[in-house]
Structure formats: structure tokens, C-alpha cells
Amino acid sequence: MHPAIGRTTLPVVNSAAPPPAPRPASVRPESASPESARPASFRPESAQPAAAAQALIAAATRLSEAVSALEFSAPVTHVYNPLHYAWAPHRAYLERYAAQGLRAVFVGMNPGPFGMMQTGVPFGEVAAVRDWMGIEAPVAGVADAHPRRPIEGFACRRSEVSGRRLWGWAARRFGPPEVFFSQCFVLNYCPLVFLEASGRNFTPDRLPRAELAPLQAACDAHLREAVAALAPAWVIGVGGYARARIDAALAAGPAGLAPRVDQILHPSPASPAANRGWEPAVDQQLERLGVFAT
To answer: How many CB atoms lie within 10 A of CB 191?
Structure first.
């Protein structure tokens, strides 16, 4: 059995901040001003962002402790927990952008190798987190890291396609991050990265039932806490697996925890539909649902 790793802190990867990269158009269009990018449904920032952030920080701490105690067997050989080694940027994300009374919370499956695995932020493509959100913080290494999947933190030069698509859409539709986060938040259902011996990603839905059940119990509890703290009108799965887990988690929660639930297309490059035009497809889905209707 292979225990979840990432609890041993190694020297900081990016103790010296890398020079700022040019801001890509896919992250924040220079021509868009806050007013021109502001949707008609914009509402002022929540009056209680601190309360939401404090609740999410406490919930994430409990989740990290719970999943770090779990064990996983072959074909999984390496398990990373970015809620531990990338806690500094993750906490900064929660403190800066969590707010109550949102239109929608978007929920992904688990971290990607060049996104949250590196930055601690869900779908956390480095350029989007650093240049659009304005977050950059020390990221530690992990013990027994896979040689083909090192933790490079904000020095990682590879782009997370799913994160580039999701956060690029947010920037183009809403403009500044404060406008997006005044209405929305993004979480991952499971915080762990699972790798096979080859370094290939192993998604949590493929775990054997005996290993998946305790993982889902911890992640379901965290999701319920997050939804209670953020109080969104909608909880939207980014893909089918996340939608199914949202349904299961909220069904087991208190009766008063009843946002509307649906899903959008996952932005993964493995999805032919996403590669044909993820942004217009998602805009159409959200329009059909009426998520941002006034």
C-alpha cells in the first residue's frame, strides 16, 4: 500500500521569484477595462469575504489531514497533496477571493500535473495564477517525488491546458479577477494527484472501491462545508464525475443546503468537444441554465 505523500516539507522551489512573464492574451486582454468587461449581472463584492475564507481555510486543513492519512495501491505509485506542500498559494487564493452569496461555484475533479499540482490553485495554470490573480507564493517539494513529475512551483514552464482555458474564459468574460470572484469560485473535489509508475496521471474515479470510499467521504464532507461557506445559487461540475460527486455529497447533507446543480463541458484537451471550441460551448451551457441571468 502506498501512503499519500506530500507531508514532508523540502526546501522551497522558488525562493527567488522568477522574472514576470509577458501577460498572455489568453489570461487577461489588455483592451478590456473593468467597466467594459463587467457583465450586466455584476454585483458588488460580498460584505463578508473574511468569513468565507476562514471557513474554507479550516475546511481545507481538515481535508488535507484526512486524505494524507489514506493509503493507495498499484497501479498508483506516487500521491501528491498540494494542500500541504503548496499551502501558501492555496491559502492566498482562499483569503483573497472567497466570498459568500455567489452565483456559482465550479467544481473540478482533481489537480492537473501543470496546474494545481504546481501552484496549489484549482486549474492553476501558472500564468493565470501569477499574472491574472496576482498570486505567487513559496511551494515546497515532496518526499519521493516521481522523476518525471517534479514539483517546480511557479517556475514550471509547462502550461496546464484545462486551466488556461478555464481561467482565460473567466478573464475574457469578466475582466479583472475581482469581478469574476464576486460572482464565482472554483474548487477541486479531490485535492490529491495520483501517478502511475510511468508518471501518467491516474484519475480518482478509477481507484478500487475500498480505497475510493474513504477518499470520497473526506471530499464529500469538504464540499458540503465549502458550499455552506460560499452559499452559491449554483454548484456546477466541470465534467460528469464532478457533477456526480456534487449530487452525492449534497444529497447526504442538511436539507437547507440545496443549491441548483448542473455541469459544464470539461476543458481537457482529451475532450474532442472541448477542442472544437470550449468557451462558446460553455457560454451556451451557462446561458441555457440561466446561471448569470439578471
So the answer is: 30
Q: Are 215 and 191 in contact (CB under 8 A)?
A: no
Describe the crossing of helices 209-230 and 240-251 by its angle, rounded to 10 degrees: 70
* DSSP letter, residue 8: S
> For the segment 152-189, what is each residue's pLDDT rounded down to a tens digit?
999 999 999 999 999 999 999 999 999 999 999 999 99
Q: In which order are the strands placed within the sheet that holds 234-238?
A: 184-188, 104-108, 234-238, 260-264
Task: Return the bridge partners of 263, or none.
Answer: 237
The residue whose grid cell reads 515546497 is 140
Specify the length of the chain in residues. Answer: 294
- How many whole angstroms separate alpha carbon 50 and alpha carbon 131? 23
Domains plus CATH for the chain?
2-7+45-289 (3.40.470.10)
Give pLDDT, residue 15.
29
Buried b (16+ CB within 10 A) or exposed e, 107-139: bbbbbbbbbbbbbbbbbbbbbbbbbbbebbbbb
Instruction: Please give the model's pTM, rounded to 2 decimal places.
Output: 0.84
Question: Are the CB atoms for 186 and 90 separated by under 8 Å?
Answer: no
